[in-house]
């Protein structure tokens, strides 16, 4: 049905700062807040990728459909932290996770952008896909309403551990929102694997950026 077909969107130029006269891709505006992101050129995860812009924009525009207020949100592969910061502004209890070498820059961006706000204090934690999940995030203690992931699939070998991580955290009632730039056959292979495990819907496509935004929930028998 038409209702199930994805909306076609473009990523808006939200990073043009409204308060200063120079052009600087580190300034963003979402949900009425100016967000300043420090990027790091040493690490893959420390640059703002298009999927992060797409998901931030979508969360901002669809607050009724995906109401994050007081919800528990886990971001995997949080990178610079933009999506986690937006989720935080939208009122969520956020846990932003990534590889150890990315955490310093991630923590800096998240604390800098959320410290003076009246909102739940976000948490930053190490999470290596597929490793030590039972120890670090035991099922008995941790249940998330939303799992957020952006541009976690690119030309690399960690796709099976990534899928295992998504499956681990996606319990009945959890919504996984994954936005990704589709460049390689591996991206489509991962999508196919995701569809085999979860109920999957394409919520939005951003054709100019080759970004797809997907919603996945666990299959309940």
Automatic annotation (TrEMBL):
Native organism: Uria aalge (Common mure)
Any one GO MF annotation of this record: methyltransferase activity
Key words of the record: Methyltransferase, S-adenosyl-L-methionine, Transferase
Entry protein name: MT21C methyltransferase
Record flagged with keyword Methyltransferase: yes
GO BP term, example: methylation
Pfam families: Methyltransf_16
Keyword S-adenosyl-L-methionine among record annotations: yes
């Amino acid at each position: 049905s038409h209702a199930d077909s994805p909306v076609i969107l473009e990523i808006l130029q939200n990073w043009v700062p409204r308060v200063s006269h120079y052009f600087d891709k580190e300034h963003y505006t979402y949900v009425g807040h100016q967000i300043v992101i420090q990027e790091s050129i040493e690490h893959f995860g420390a640059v703002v990728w298009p999927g992060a812009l797409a998901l931030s924009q979508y969360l901002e525009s669809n607050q009724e459909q995906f109401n994050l207020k007081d919800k528990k949100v886990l971001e995997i592969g949080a990178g610079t932290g933009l999506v986690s910061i937006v989720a935080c502004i939208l009122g969520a209890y956020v846990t932003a996770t990534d590889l150890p070498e990315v955490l310093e820059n991630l923590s800096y961006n998240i604390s800098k952008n959320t410290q003076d706000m009246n909102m739940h204090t976000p948490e930053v934690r190490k999470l290596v896909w597929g490793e030590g999940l039972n120890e670090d995030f035991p099922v008995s203690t941790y249940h998330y309403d939303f799992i957020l992931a952006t541009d976690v699939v690119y030309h690399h070998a960690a796709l099976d551990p990534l899928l295992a991580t998504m499956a681990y955290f996606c319990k009945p009632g959890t919504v996984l929102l994954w936005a990704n730039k589709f460049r390689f056959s591996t991206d489509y292979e991962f999508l196919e694997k995701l569809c085999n495990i979860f109920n999957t819907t394409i919520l939005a496509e951003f054709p100019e950026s080759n970004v797809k935004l997907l919603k996945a929930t666990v299959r309940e028998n």
